[in-house]
Amino acid sequence: MEAPDSLTEPFTLPSPTPPLPSTPLPGTAPPGTAPHYAPPGALGIKSWAEEDRPREKLMAKGRAALSDAELIAILLGSGTTKLTAVDVAKLMLQGVGNDLNALAKESVKQLCRHPGIGEAKAITVVAALELGRRRKEADAAPRTTITCSRDIYNLIRPNLMDLPHEEFWVILLNRANVVMRKTAISRGGVAGTVADPKMIFKEALEQLASSIILVHNHPSGNRNPSAADIQLTKKLKEAGQFLDLPILDHLIYSDQGYYSFADEGVL
């Protein structure tokens, strides 16, 4: 009996094993349609194009380029095994009707009900939204305009009243002489304190101030300037002229009153 011709004998190719579906992207399949699948690892933000990652996007394009969800995702830092931080943020916003004001009213406990949100992440979000609320309050509050030395005294009095030691402060103003910030530069002992010109002008330059007012107190109650006070004021005035940051006044504070270099014509 002859052996069958192996070249002509019919044969059947084995059916290939169908590939397992990858994890579906959350929220991408409309009702009644087949879900969209992403390759393994596509859910991680690190697999995104660099310009689409929230942190990198903020650095490259600025904070205004990010959506609310992307900004919240930066606060969250990470997502879950199945959701990116952006996905978690979107679900948070959806839970409050995409209303940031409503989100700001949620407590830590309420935020923890959202998928992927634990106590630490909830606290971070609450803290950030509280800062936003305080900023609104600060913007709405009337800002002090300096028109005379008495305005300076009234502004700084809550900071220097009853102090047993010397402190040196600067008040930074914009072009309209509206107070931008008041900052303590140094704290010393009963007899004096050190005021570093570099720190004074560094603060003013960082805040983009237009002018500076100097203030320090004399715990003894003696309002007259010392020779060191006069020398320092002259030095700072000259430096301010060079930097286009004029020194408008130097006030020596005491609980009983004050001495103004500008009023006395010494500045």
UniProtKB/TrEMBL annotation:
Renumbered residue ranges of the record's region Disordered: 1-42
InterPro entries according to UniProt: MPN, RadC_JAB, RuvA_2-like, UPF0758, UPF0758_CS, UPF0758_N
UniProt similarity note: Belongs to the UPF0758 family.
SUPFAM superfamilies: RuvA domain 2-like
Domain MPN span(s) in chain numbering: 145-267
UniProt organism field: Hymenobacter arizonensis
Protein name, entry field: DNA replication and repair protein RadC
Compositional bias per record (Pro residues), positions renumbered to this chain: 13-33
Lineage: Bacteria, Pseudomonadati, Bacteroidota, Cytophagia, Cytophagales
A GO molecular-function annotation: metallopeptidase activity
Keyword line: Hydrolase, Metal-binding, Metalloprotease, Protease, Zinc
Compositional bias per record (Low complexity), positions renumbered to this chain: 1-12
NCBIfam families from the UniProt entry: PRK00024.1, radc
Taxonomy, superkingdom: Bacteria
GO process annotations (BP): proteolysis
